[in-house]
Design brief:
CATH superfamily: EutN/Ccml
Largest sheet: 5 strands, antiparallel
Order of helices and strands: EEHEEE
Radius of gyration: 14 Å
CATH class: Mainly Beta
Shape: elongated
CATH topology: OB fold (Dihydrolipoamide Acetyltransferase, E2P)
Strand content: 25-35%
Length: about 100
């Protein structure tokens, strides 16, 4: 699982039938610089994934997401999916060791 911050959402006018009613999030991965506040913008320079969301995460919320094969586990049939939201976080405390 990876921590991320929701920085946007995507609305589709047409998509694969498997995704009917799906919500899509634009997520900024959160690394040590973002979690400790060293990156004042809070937006990572890392690649920004588009994450499937069926939990209802909103803008600026912190989430945990998984990528790859694990992202398809909640579905009965194979589905073309790269990342899925698995948790909406209430709080993150991160204190790296020096």
């Amino acid at each position: 699982m990876k921590p991320g911050k929701v920085i946007g959402n995507i609305t589709l006018s047409l998509g694969a039938p498997q995704f009917k009613g799906a919500r899509w999030l634009v997520v900024s991965p959160q690394g040590p610089e973002e979690l400790t506040g060293q990156n004042s913008s809070g937006i990572s320079q890392a690649s920004t994934p588009i994450v499937y969301d069926n939990l209802g995460a909103g803008l600026e919320e912190d989430i945990l997401y998984v990528e790859g094969t694990e992202a398809t586990q909640p579905f009965e049939h194979r589905i073309p999916l790269d990342a899925i939201n698995v948790a909406i976080l209430d709080n993150i405390t991160f204190r790296p060791k020096n």
